[in-house]
Batch of 4 targets.
Target 1
Amino acid sequence: MVKQWFSKNRLMLSSLLVALIGIGLLASCGDNGDEAAAPGASN
């Protein structure tokens, strides 16, 4: 039963996964930008 649900909703699940990965990448890029700006201000 679970396999049938997964096969039906594979497209939705994959798009959700891509969205989560994209949000994670954007968040990590934002964090890296803040970290890069902090040493420049302290120096």
Target 2
Amino acid sequence: MELWSGSSGRAWQDTIKPFLIFSSICYVPPICETLHSVCTEILIKRGMNTMKTIPLYMYSLLKTIPESALPVGFQFRLFQEGDEKHWARINVSTKEFSVTDAALERFNQEFGSHLAEVKKRMLFILNEEETPIGTATAWFGIWEGRVIGRLHWVEIIPEYQGKGLGAPLISKAIELLAVYHEEAYLKTQTTSQAAIHLYKKLGFEPAILSEEEKEGWSFIKGS
């Protein structure tokens, strides 16, 4: 059941507005950044936010590998044959794709010819029943004309979000990236503020490559 079920759109906006105002003038950065990010992303999901969606990039030299342990009952494992169905299921659950076939098609386009690398670079979080419920890939890509690491496809199914899995998942992926690369980047967007603040805590910094991205970063509180 949603916290705000039963409220009209206007009433709901009026309810959350004071929290957004408070977060914009708050002087305790960890608290106000988190509050602002959560409120903004709730509004986005409700279709009530007018923030312009702009793709953004972040970059890390991978000099410091963050440590963040998984909660009790969860474990990591690397990609195994047949795990593309789990990757697709997770990404459909987070609305990256509307149907499983589209997710599988994207998997095959992006990873199908690199399965040997996928088995070394794609992570899953398993729940207590050893079912994959989250994924991240320590991939690679072209950055300013050279091949470097890429933190890619970080997703956790909604039922397990907010359970302290995001930081351990990203930290483990960064650890894997550092095995193969000395630097890495990731792609995000202005509407993913909570994720952006987490990436910053784990060592990634804004990489401004265009005027549009400069505008985008101006929307991110604390950037």
Target 3
Amino acid sequence: MQSSSETDSEKTYLIQKKQPMVNKYKEIRALLSLTFPLILENLAVVLFQSVNLVSLGHLGEEELAGCSLGSILWAISTMFPLGFVHALDAFISQAHGAKNERLVGVYVYQSYFIMIILAIPIAFLWYFSGSVMTALKQDHVVANYARKYLIWQMPGLVPFLFLSVIQECFQNLQIVIAPLVINLIGFGVNIFLNFGFVYGVFHLPKLGFIGSPIATSISEFIMFVLMYIYLKVKKIDKEWKLEKSVFNPLNLGPFLKVGLPIVFTMLIEELIYELTLFLAGAMGTIQMGVHTVLVNIDYLLYSIGLGFSVGVSTRIGYFLGSGDPISARLSTRCSYFIGFIIGAINSSIVISLRKHLGYIFSSSKTIINQVSQLAYYSAVHAFIDANYTTFEGIMRGIGSNVPGFLITFFGFLTISTTLSFVFFFETNLEVKGLWISIIVGISSSAIAVIFLFLRRVNWKKQSDIAVLRATHEWSSSSESESESESETETDEFISKSSTSSSTFSSESSENEDETENQDQDQDQEHLKVSNQSETSSLSSSTFSSESSETEDENEDENENQNQKIQQIISENDFENDNQNNTIINIDIENVNEKSDNLIDLNSDSSDSFV
């Protein structure tokens, strides 16, 4: 038996060694087929927001600066709820991989609840944004435009947040075509209403500056309604239940644990860009316009990498939730290659179109010329940013967001911020110095992510964590996450196993006259239960006379087999006994053992006992 098991293990090793070489091209195709619609969808989302800058930028430099300033505060304030939305990348993809659709609904309803809570302080901030801008030494005229921009965005705030939740849910369920179509529809509606309300075309009333945020609010509401209708028509939420426990603050622990690091990571990244915009604003209106154009071009290219990173996190989370760490690791390696290609393409786009990019956002010749001169810095940043965004998608799929937060804090908030102030006060580099500081910060973060996190990931351990999270969270009616309750449930399971062991022992003694095959089946099943419950003295006494010599000879081998048989018992109990929705402390190093090999080992041990 030992020689055959060694042969099997050698064959398994050879198969696993060859498998990545065989499947990597298929995985690249799978990633591209999933992420290409997501890239287009994210482009539509970014273009949706850029429509406002395009429509208002041609009204004048002050209107462009006011829209830019309002967009800064809009981006910073919505970063908190959107950070929790991105936490769904790990939760929903892993729950979907574990075929736990009910848990998907729990996460969606939790997100709705959090969005409503966070929308209240955001609305207050927008209403008093004029005072905030003035306190930050911004021009009074520009600050007034920014306040108008935000106030008329308020009606679309909650629809936008709910839309983001549904959209993120669809992405992690690998539903990509419908959200893409709806975003394209919303993009077209926003263009139509924006230019209609701002300039009075298309038989719409001319509202001037406020016409742009009004058009955006209407478009966001239309997109949310369309997305919700699709959700209901396709019955995607048929297994979702709005339970009272969703609103229990105690049950928000896992969500906050994963979501808060993402919130602070996104906030830090956004703050460095907004900080440079404020510094550019202090340099003058022209410098503010130049930097705004470059940031928006960079943000447009960032959406390509972001769409790919969402697909990567969805793919990795799905594999981890389904208990397949090998495929998750393979998908990660393929994403490195694709992320590098995306970065090279983005950089090439900026360089080749550098003389024409300024015309998209402004009619000022000065702004257009300076944009073309600084486009090379934007190209370097676009290449690095695409790769770093891919790394962030991998970390979101794994669900390990604390390292990403710490690395981002070091690279962006420490290095980039320091260099930005140094270049601003000590040199005459102006906007060029701001972009150098951003490039140095993101480069440092990318290098740190590779060597401090990605090269050290234990994929087996992460898969075990994902399986346990997706399978056992919210499994009881009380939805409690406390460790004491888990221990109580485990004790109850062990006591039930002991009782069933005693019952089975008495039944097997009464049926000694049955056929030989039935006796062997009972002996085998009795062996499983006796191995799991150490307290079943009756079962051990029943078999002690029959197997004492065998146990003395194969004691070491049986100990290893007992651990594997105990795992089979726990898995069968979860699948066949609906009354035992309990959490079992499974040995995390043996979760992904092949079931066929375990059954063979089990049958061999049973034959030796008989």
Target 4
Amino acid sequence: MRLVSATTVRAAQRSLTRAPPHHAPPLLHLSLRSRLPIVAGNVVIQSSAYSLLSLLPGSTSQKESRERLPSPPPLPQPQRLQVHDDCVVEYVDLRAREDTSYTLVLVHGAPGTYHDYRHLIPILQEQSPHVRLLGINLPGFGGSDVAHERYFDRISALGASQVTLDALHQLCGVNERVFLLGHSFGGHTAINLAALNLQASDSSPQVRIDGMVLLASAGARPHRVLRPRERTFTVFRLLQSRLAPVRYVLPLALKAFYTTILRFPSQFPPSHFVAGVVRAATTDFSTLQTQIAQLRAACVPTLSAWSVNDEFMEDEIPAALAAALGSSRRVVFEGAGHNLQKTRATQLAQEIIQWTDHVSCVNESQCDGTQLIYDDVVLHELP
């Protein structure tokens, strides 16, 4: 369990007690102001909330969030797409300046949105006038809405991936070349998407997926912030409680910890952070391992990049994933942290465009396979 200083916890409590929601039930006001635990049956809600610090995936450290980087240009206004009768998917579509060669689909982590790529997007556009960039918010995140009746099913790991694949079918058709780019838990989603697409292609091809780019991806076994997984499962069960106070308090506690202690953006509703926990809790690693084997057997090209000092996962996790997938290109950074799409955006954009150009070449003779080397990057082919 990660330890948090008493000062930090007191600051979080002050931020909650200073202005609790006016519509919060009296039980919540009492707990926040007196710091008493909330008991539902034999479960202590406040204790579960504090244990969330050890299970929040894909988050940004306090040190990393303070880095001063130039503000990227604003992204275009989002568009919304109806998928089935119960989902509306929010996305941004940055069309290629010239004829489109392929589309890069940007898949965020948990919690996250396509804004996680805001530093990488303009550099990718500079690198290639022929790439279309499609940023999609997974069901439950950002402005992607899900009907109450199938909420937990649609925001689960495979449920969200199937909705996203159906959205890509509408946005890209069956002939457009597509590369999936996933960060953190978005790497899992990219694997889910590619594997589900392989299964669908037996009867009705959905999307032409030419390859995957995985950045600091979660792997084929739980990384350190997910262990022990029982804590994640406990919170997931509590989120589905029939007790109204529990269903109300726990999402607020999740948001408070993500935004006050881990310093995530606070403009999102509590449901955004609930979706992040559900995504982690519903990950079936045995299914994921099967999908990885299927993608390797199908020779789906993969570029894998990670940092040796990732604060949320040991570097053996993405290294083992790259080996299992047979990644044709592996880029290992030093000092990049978990959000390398932000801290190493320039180097990554060059690597990504060169690799995707190479894979998407119609005539292999046009591709010389040149690899780029940087002083602050460790680049090596692992056995």
